[in-house]
Design a protein that fits this description.
8-stranded parallel beta sheet; TIM Barrel; alpha/beta; 9 helices; globular
């Protein structure tokens, strides 16, 4: 399986304000990716939950240093009422100019309610353009996640950092079953034969490979996928083709 294209759906750039493992710039991340054989990555800033406007710009600056264009960025959104980010059309144009392909949110750290009243304008615009939304902020906040997915079911939603060592299938599977735009990313999903069973039940097109770097390394999730028992065509979808399709389908 050495020729499989791996497109990591869950990487972070930049160092956390009080230390810890990190890739301080694009070159450091690309070095890690090359070591494990990862072709591309979708990346967000390590500190976006602390200062989204500054870290959005910092991420854009770091991506400009990566001439190979193997990295696609993720920007954080905020409620429209405080005029901190521009109108959706302007924001999306700026995303395209800076090689940003997806958006995310950190409502609990940024102290707002993740609902239509606060972010409906930009979420609806993202739904129209099929721009993916990463839901890393909702890890283990299942009531909040279920309400959010129901309210924004037209959006392309990618749930991240979900599981911990015990897994979360009783919460993940109802969302996969009922919402066709809901995708599941595999970082930290260590359920024996779990990826195989999810793909068999809900389709390999609904699952994305993600490493969770730098919390985890790239290789552990790659090994789990390669040894999942799925057909090579399904492994290829999860490894990178699904994310590539989603990003290419976005209208920026």
């Amino acid at each position: 399986m050495k020729d499989i294209m791996f497109f990591d759906a869950n990487c972070r750039l930049g160092c956390y304000f009080n230390g810890g493992p990190c890739a301080e710039n694009a070159a450091a991340l690309l070095k890690e990716m090359d070591y494990y054989g990862v072709d591309k990555a979708l990346v967000r800033h390590r500190n976006l939950d602390k200062g989204p406007l500054a870290t959005n710009q910092s991420l854009a600056n770091m991506l400009k240093e990566a001439a190979e264009q193997r990295l696609t960025g993720v920007w954080c959104i905020l409620p429209s009422q405080c005029d901190e980010i521009p109108e959706p059309d302007v924001f999306f144009r700026q995303m395209k100019e800076n090689r940003i392909g997806a958006i995310t949110l950190s409502p609990f750290e940024h102290r707002y309610q993740p609902c239509r009243l606060t972010i409906g304008k930009i979420m609806d615009a993202a739904a129209e353009r099929r721009i993916p939304v990463l839901l890393n902020a909702f890890a283990s906040k299942w009531p909040d996640l279920f309400r959010f997915v129901e309210e924004f079911q037209r959006n392309v939603l990618i749930y991240q950092e979900s599981c911990g060592k015990w897994g979360s299938d009783r919460n993940i599977r109802p969302l996969l079953e009922n919402y066709e735009n809901f995708y599941f990313e595999t970082a930290g999903y260590w359920v024996p034969e779990g990826i195989y069973d999810l793909a068999e039940r809900y389709g390999a097109k609904r699952i994305l490979y993600g490493s969770g770097f730098p919390t985890y390394n790239h290789g552990s999730g790659m090994l789990q996928l390669k040894q999942s028992g799925l057909a090579l065509s399904d492994v290829e979808l999860i490894a990178g083709k699904n994310l590539e399709r989603i990003l290419k389908g976005a209208e920026l």
